[in-house]
DNA sequence: CATGAATGAGAATTCATTCAT
DNA sequence: CATGAATGAATTCTCATTCAT
């Protein structure tokens, strides 16, 4: 019998190598030769495990999406359900945690985003993710805002997250603290618009 | 009136074709053969006029950047200098005018953005543009806010512009009215944070 | 009764799978992976039992040659030695029995034939077979014809067998009855040429 | 302007090289690298002119089919329409002229034949050809035989042509004279079956 | 100016075979 | 015995670029 459990070793190994290479040279210049060399295996093995370059890229995409989702969920669920604003801040923070701010990861995200414009499979994955972010934000905001207000603020937060992230990707980096501060400020502004005397408890470190 | 030389005919012709093809198949699958066929000329001519594929892509990038800037400037300058908030809204509107919301243009933008991650020449162009947007916003906001406040609000607006745009690119489209409304709401919220009794004149259609 | 070793199980299993796959996708597209999958075993086992793909193909070839020969011999020997024309007809019938007319078998034959043009080992096998067919025909015909006449008629019958078979392979099928009828007609014509008043007994169902 | 008329030079050049290589190493071992090297051009040019290996093989097939047809037609039409048997013999001769008996051409034919079993495009071409041969034979035989008789004799001649050819391909060669003699014999035998006192004029060199 | 023929480097993919388990 | 992981050579196809006309 051949070595058992190799798929569980090789697949993550190849996906990691893929993300590294994309982060370094860009999706357009990434070749299976580079990836396999980085992973320390032969090029042919990619077809063995992923059916081809496309399959590997697809799985890589799913992996970073899942990592993002897992990180955000952990942060959010670590807080009580009756602290909605804190939970929103946790969601924001999760989108800017150190793993996501790794320049190579940011480059990979952008590459996949551009790719998704012309690849329905990737586009679908991205849309699901976008909807999930929005949905979680709305759910928490609903605890202290009207349906319409929650919808609008959630949309704004989501846009700020992506916008800060995108501008950061271009200019060389994002400061998590800066990002969280800006979004906090947006939330306070929005809450203020509707609650001149807001009773929502906002953490003192705002 | 000088007679137009071939360069003045061929270059825009090829740049238009480039943007169309990128919008349709993506930067990664765009070939000079496709571009030249679309433009109705031979493949070799691209090297003649642009020195190669890279030169053509670079010029194409500069073209859409210039179009965006020109559009934004026209809208901004059409308003009095002492209507800063209106001018900010004009800047926002310019970033979401119909030309920029053409799906093919959005795809091209995203493609160039991803490409810029690994191409210093493109990255420089993008950074210059980002700085210009921020600078204009700050300049107008300075007329009714402190330096620090202006900086922060400008950063937020820029992030919202890019974030709304990015999410729209993915989900299939952006509604200009929605975008402007969201950013208006942000501005009002931010102004409210600092001026509980704001004296800034905000257009009545807010 | 000796217990069957694995070789006696595996070899026919793999040869059958080989013929099936060749019949379905053609020799050129047949891979060991396909064959082993069809046989329900691993790819590596082919080298274990046949020393490689070539060995398996060679054995497969020998198998269908043997099947054809066995079938023809059985039919021929089932008839009395002093019914030469009936024996000739039995040889013809054997070449068009249902096993040989299976479209997958016909495709395999043709594939091996083409392959034999460039593979001396296969060519040798085929030549032996061709000679055997001719030899049997001549042997029977010699009982009622001169050496020269027997040689010529045998050559014609062999050519007709292969020609009918080849044309049938292309056009989608052969009718055994049609084939036998045509060759009968040829034999009668040939006999008639030399024996205006032939004394050879030809079966009444001619 | 580039060199004009290159397609008319390159295409036959590449097709010739293809037939030569297939004739030498077999279809299965033929690579575009071999073909282009033989033709003295680069491998890429094959895609330029034929869209890929398949296109080249297809065109090569069409070429040898056309050559055979042209040769047969010329021979047939060189004889008076009221010499049907002579015309039939011309058709037979055309199928065994020196060009068709070149071992490389025979190998190519056989390769294509096997390939056609799994390639509908090739199969269609072959069927058209088979039908044409049969049709011409029937047309000529109709001039001296009944419809049914003409059909049967034509079928037999066609089978003999292919069978002799196939057996020759395997055993290393065909003698045109032998082939024609055998088929002549068949024709005479068949004519004799129906016309005990045949009035059909058969050339004296029979 | 413009063409498109031609090149050649590079990329993905295929696949028979080997071999540790 | 048997597996299937792994390899690496071979092959097809792509494509930017060059260049003779």
TrEMBL record, chains A, B, C, D:
Ranges where the HTH tetR-type domain occurs: 8-68
Superkingdom field: Bacteria
Keyword Transmembrane helix tagged: no
InterPro entries: BetI_C (IPR039538), DNA-bd_HTH_TetR-type_CS (IPR023772), Homeodomain-like_sf (IPR009057), HTH-type_TetR-like_transc_reg (IPR050109), HTH_TetR (IPR001647), Tet_transcr_reg_TetR-rel_C_sf (IPR036271), Tscrpt_rep_BetI (IPR017757)
Protein's UniProt name: HTH-type transcriptional regulator BetI
Keyword tags: DNA-binding, Repressor, Transcription, Transcription regulation
SUPFAM superfamilies cross-referenced by the UniProt entry: Homeodomain-like, Tetracyclin repressor-like, C-terminal domain
Entries under Gene3D superfamilies matching the protein: Tetracycline Repressor, domain 2
Taxonomic lineage: Bacteria, Pseudomonadati, Pseudomonadota, Gammaproteobacteria, Oceanospirillales
Purpose of the protein: Repressor involved in choline regulation of the bet genes. Repressor involved in the biosynthesis of the osmoprotectant glycine betaine. It represses transcription of the choline transporter BetT and the genes of BetAB involved in the synthesis of glycine betaine.
Any Pfam family hit: TetR_N
Pathway: Amine and polyamine biosynthesis; betaine biosynthesis via choline pathway [regulation]
Binding region for DNA: 31-50
């Amino acid at each position: 019998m051949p070595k058992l459990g190799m798929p569980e070793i090789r697949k993550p190994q190849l996906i990691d190598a893929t993300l590294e290479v994309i982060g370094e040279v860009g999706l357009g210049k990434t070749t299976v030769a580079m990836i396999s060399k980085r992973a320390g295996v032969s090029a042919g093995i990619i077809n063995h495990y992923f059916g081809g370059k496309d399959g590997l890229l697809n799985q890589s995409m799913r992996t970073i999406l899942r990592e993002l989702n897992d990180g955000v969920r952990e942060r959010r669920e670590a807080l009580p359900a009756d602290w909605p604003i804190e939970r929103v801040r946790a969601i924001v923070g999760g989108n800017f945690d150190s793993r996501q701010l790794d320049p190579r990861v940011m480059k990979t995200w952008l590459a996949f985003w551009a790719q998704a414009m012309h690849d329905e499979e990737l586009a679908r994955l991205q849309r699901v993710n976008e909807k999930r972010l929005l949905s979680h934000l709305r759910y928490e905001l609903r605890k202290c805002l009207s349906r319409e207000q929650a919808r609008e603020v959630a949309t704004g937060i989501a846009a700020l997250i992506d916008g800060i992230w995108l501008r950061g990707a271009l200019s060389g980096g994002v400061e998590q603290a800066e990002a969280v501060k800006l979004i906090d400020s947006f939330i306070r502004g929005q809450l203020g618009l509707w609650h001149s005397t807001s009773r929502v408890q906002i953490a003192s470190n705002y």
